[in-house]
Amino acid sequence: MKALREALAEIEHDRWARWEKYRARALSLDNLQMWNRKAETPYAELGEAEKESDRKEADRTLEILRTHGIIK
What we know:
By secondary structure, the chain is an all-alpha fold. It has helices at 2-26, 29-40, 48-67. It has one domain (2-67). It is globular and about 45 Å long. The two termini are 17 Å apart. 0% of the residues are buried.
């Protein structure tokens, strides 16, 4: 379980680091307003592009769970 926890923590750090690098390059008032709107929007109400982006992140987590034999 410790190895799984570490793998999940690593992927979360990677997500955060990618986001911070992107945010630093793309920081603008328009983007801040858009990100705030998206943050306040429930997943079910997001557009397909936003949902697909979240699904890709979920796929990364599922792969770790498969690697650790948690799911098939």
